[in-house]
Amino acid sequence: MPLVHAFVDPEDAHKAAIWLCKKGLVPKERVADDERLAVELWGKKISNPIGLAAGFDKNAEGVDSLLDFGFGLVEIGSVTPQPQPGNPKPRMFRLPADKAVINRYGFNSDGHHQVLTNLKTRTRSFLYKNAFTLSLTNPEVDESQKEAYVVALPRGVSRALRDGKLLGVNLGKNKISVAESNEDYVRGAEELGPFGDYLVVNISSPNTPGLRALQRREPIERLLQEVKEARDKKLPHHPPLLVKIAPDLKDDEIADIAAVATSVGVDGVIISNTTISRPENLQSGPRITRETGGLSGPPVFPLSVEVVRKFYQLTEGKIPIIGCGGVRSGDDAIAFAKAGASLVQLYTGFAFEGPGLVGEIKEQIAHRLKEQNLTWKDVIGADHKK
């Protein structure tokens, strides 16, 4: 991987990785997950708590290969209703000394239509291959799959199409959309919701003008209420609704979001997106660190963990949290869990270290848990129980 990083443009490397995943030209993890790693969330058992964050597979091109790497959950997107190219290139910059990345992609997306086509093709292929094992005459089938031009999926089948795995769909907003309108997110829930085990309202990307303003109390309350109502009216299987927030929020802003999440009844929160701050301990030079965009990787880790800790306290652990930001080891993942996260996601570490990192993190977690005769479920929120 270091050799690739030295000679290949980061965005070109990303495209090449997606192409390999799309073609299935990637290694597969063949070891079953340790039972200590299992967690139950939203009524489903997940075989391990390590997920791939949104941003890697924006258009659902390589979902199955990514699941083959051993992730417990894979999140696609962000997906915008209309196709859009995102910001001008270059827009992704490596900080090798910090194992970090700055990006200003700007929600580049193939749009709902193409992503739906990719998801429908995947679902149709699954059903054809498993026609003899699914109860196709079950009256409890999910009608939402009729539009996929395939036989309907039974309700109990994960949208990841794997036992013990989840597929998340991250919803974005077009740059040209009216700032005050929530229609893009409502459409996303209605159109992409049938294919997700959970949905994410992304209002925390720093690369779309005005988007982070939606994190203020009144806008976020109105937004989440509208998306939740659309989900409840249009989607028979009611995928859990999550919101993804920034690590740069002030304490009063975190408190407002916690209050809104509780009152609206969202099913979870992802903490966090990239940061617009530049920590003083960055080792990379100012030529790179001064680039505009969101910073991801290890420098974000302490910021994200602290927001997780505060949010868990404010909600008394009643709203599930997915921790995201700088996870590179089993100890990092456990730190998120102790602060209050039920699941964790990674992206930048995966991009730097490759797919082998997923198995390494799971092995490290299992080793730590075995040493202390604990399970993953035991460590969730442990810092608050001392």
UniProtKB/TrEMBL annotation:
<dbReference type="Pfam" id="PF01180">
    <property type="entry name" value="DHO_dh"/>
</dbReference>
<feature type="domain" description="Dihydroorotate dehydrogenase catalytic">
    <location>
        <begin position="37"/>
        <end position="369"/>
    </location>
</feature>
<dbReference type="InterPro" id="IPR005720">
    <property type="entry name" value="Dihydroorotate_DH_cat"/>
</dbReference>
<dbReference type="InterPro" id="IPR005719">
    <property type="entry name" value="Dihydroorotate_DH_2"/>
</dbReference>
<dbReference type="InterPro" id="IPR013785">
    <property type="entry name" value="Aldolase_TIM"/>
</dbReference>
<comment type="similarity">
    <text>Belongs to the dihydroorotate dehydrogenase family. Type 2 subfamily.</text>
</comment>
<keyword id="KW-0999">Mitochondrion inner membrane</keyword>
<dbReference type="InterPro" id="IPR001295">
    <property type="entry name" value="Dihydroorotate_DH_CS"/>
</dbReference>
<comment type="pathway">
    <text>Pyrimidine metabolism; UMP biosynthesis via de novo pathway; orotate from (S)-dihydroorotate (quinone route): step 1/1.</text>
</comment>
<dbReference type="InterPro" id="IPR050074">
    <property type="entry name" value="DHO_dehydrogenase"/>
</dbReference>
<keyword id="KW-0472">Membrane</keyword>
<keyword id="KW-0285">Flavoprotein</keyword>
<keyword id="KW-0288">FMN</keyword>
<dbReference type="GO" id="GO:0006207">
    <property type="term" value="P:'de novo' pyrimidine nucleobase biosynthetic process"/>
</dbReference>
<keyword id="KW-0496">Mitochondrion</keyword>
<protein>
    <recommendedName>
        <fullName>Dihydroorotate dehydrogenase (quinone), mitochondrial</fullName>
        <ecNumber>1.3.5.2</ecNumber>
    </recommendedName>
</protein>
<dbReference type="GO" id="GO:0009220">
    <property type="term" value="P:pyrimidine ribonucleotide biosynthetic process"/>
</dbReference>
<dbReference type="GO" id="GO:0106430">
    <property type="term" value="F:dihydroorotate dehydrogenase (quinone) activity"/>
</dbReference>
<dbReference type="GO" id="GO:0005743">
    <property type="term" value="C:mitochondrial inner membrane"/>
</dbReference>
<keyword id="KW-0560">Oxidoreductase</keyword>
